Every structure is written in structure tokens, then in C-alpha cells.
């Protein structure tokens, strides 16, 4: 089988399958051969289905009418979402039973013609930006096998970076569609809340985590987003669709927040490399201004209000998610300290705490609404540190600053979540150790496709970074 198949973009692969330049069996064989060589070294794809089953399903696709742009694509779903016939371990449950139905967005990927080969690895319950668990082990960074892949969509980002799948789905609460892409030199999009509907739980209150796409190109990112997106009455806050704005970039204004004037502890070279990447915006005719303080409005008084606003929302929503597992004694005993931290945080919240946190969040949104009268996009690094040693659970300090929680080092990712804004992660270059980092670009409310247009222009300006491939696929 032609090994070049796995190097094609998802758009190129789709066109080749539709024109019958290649068959689905040929595609599946090429990908499975590549996975057998690469995946044991990084542990990105788990719960793999048997090769014979997958090839038989691919042969069936070759015999049936064209189903959609993902016809015959090998696809692995993040191991927090259900795929009928596959276990959902959540990185916690050994020998989890096979799911009996697809998650809502998985239904749409299946309808587009994908063949589900397995799952992508995630930290236990998706907690923390480092993909490790006691069920499958640790996922390794695509560019350095001794380093973290990020999380919680670490398996997805590594699988895409190493050409083991054409595109991948992920989810994001505190940067999980941003930090792993940034650390693996690919693209990720946290869509506006409601763009990709999700059923289950409280359909009105759960406005933290969202599903979205990870890809190697902006066009592939858009293709998968369009597959996953769209209204569904099982998700009453989901979006029917907005006017798709494709703004002119020349003269557009960027608010560069960097490390928020020193408020965010950040490794010096992270700030150095991401600041240098801003020249690519200038090359696109955009204007970049440095803004050191988050906009104030209402109860939100600036940078120092960020963590109080975040930790209340985090404890409320993450704590509720953990409670489902904490209530099962057999699972409770397996919960890692990070999960117990979130559950205990939920138990300690009062109604007054939630109301005060909501006021802070509303103030931050109002501040950004005013900011976007002057600026078109807001930009920050995707993480405050470089990929760290995979044997560590999280960075205990950044420079001289101790990190008091397992996620404080990812505070840079809280802003877009708090205001439910769309945000795209794009590559920002490499540090002196050869490790990648990214930029997260926050757009106006519901302006997802304007972000994708910017990502496409960015891609044309950063061909040199795209050509810097991981050793395993050179």
C-alpha cells in the first residue's frame, strides 16, 4: 500500500476516495500499517478494533454508494464520548462495557462515512492537561517521546500530528482543544457554545465543555466542524447557524495579551517564541497592539478577578461531572487526587459563591464585548510552559511561582471558556529544544468561521512550521 496516503490532508484523501483514485481498503490498510509502527511508541489510540473487522468494513464501503466526505476514513473518538460497539473508559473504568449508542456528534461523523477504529486516549475523566491514566497509560508528545502530549485531547492531537488519523474530534473545558494542538504543531478549534450540540445532563446549565475538531490544516478543521455542527432539539441551546463572516484581514486589529503584563507565570522562552510569531500577523496586514490587562466591567476588575471567576465555574461544572463517578463506590476508590479535588470543591460551594462567580463571569464578557469594538481578535499563548516530562503529573512551579492546583499553570486557557467565545489554536513555532507551542486566537461571539478564515491565512504564512514534521513521520 502507498505510504503517501497517510500524508494527504483530509480534503485530499476525501477527494481521492470519491474519485476512486484509491479504495477504502487501500486507505484502511495504509493507516493500519502506519499505526502498527507508530502508535506503540506514543500510545495515542486505544481500544483498537481488530484489523480484520476494520478491513471488512472498509471493503463494504468500497461496495456501497458514496456516503459523505469522510467515506472510508479511519476515525478514533476521544475516550470520553460514546461510540456504539466500543467501550468508553473515561480513563477510569477497566473492561468498560461497549456503548449501545453513539454520542450526538459521533452520529454525525458516522453519517459522513467514517469507520471507527478505536478511541483516543485521555486523562482520567478528562481532568488535567496531561494525558495519562491507569487504564491505558501515558500518551507521549509527537515531537519528543519523553514529554507530555497535553490534554485532555492529547491522544487526539498526537494521532493527527503523527498521521494516524486524517482528523480527530476532541473536547475542551480548560484548553483541551488548544494546549494539545499547540504542543503537537496542529490546529484545534474550541467552537462557540452550542455550535456542536451535546445531549445528556442538564441541557441548560452545562456551558463549560464543548466538542470540536483537531486537524493539520485549516480547511480540514472546517470540514470536520461542519460535520459536527448544527442544531439538534436534544440540545436546546444548540445553534441553528449564524451568518458566516469572512472578514478582510488587512487592517484588522489584534489585542496581544501575552502573559497579561506579568500576571500569568510563564516560561520565558514560551513568551519569547509566541511574541516573535506575531510578525506573521503583521505580514498579513494586521495591526498588533500589546494589552496587559483584561478589560474591566461590572464585578470583574481586571487580571486579579480571573482566577476567582474561573475556579468557581470549574468547581461547579467539573465537580458535577466527577460526582457521577464518585457516587459509584467501585469507581470512587479509583479516582485520582485531581478528581477528588474537584468533587470536594463542588461540595464546598454555596449559592452565594456561584452567584458571585457568575457576576465576575458576566463582567468579563461585558469587558470583552467592549474590547471587540476596537479589536477583531484577542491572542494569547496556548500554554504557559513547554511540554514537560511525561513522568510528572503537572508542573509544580513556573520559575519561582508555586502552582497551588493541578491546573493553575493553564490559567491562560480560562478566558475563552469563561466568555463562551470561539477560539482557534494555531502553530506558533518551536523553541530551542525543538518543541512546538501555539497561539490561541479568541474571536467574537459565534464568529467561528472568521477564526477559521484567519487560520487559513495563518497557515499560508507558516509553511516553514508545517514542514517541521515529527521524527516518526519524516
From TrEMBL:
**Listed InterPro entries:** Amidase, Amidase_dom, AS_sf
Q: Where is the Amidase domain?
A: 26-451
Q: Name one GO molecular function term.
A: catalytic activity
What SUPFAM superfamilies would the database entry show? Amidase signature (AS) enzymes
**Gene3D superfamilies, sorted:** Amidase signature (AS) domain (3.90.1300.10)
**Under what name is this protein listed?**
Amidase
> What organism is listed for this UniProt entry?
Actinoplanes xinjiangensis
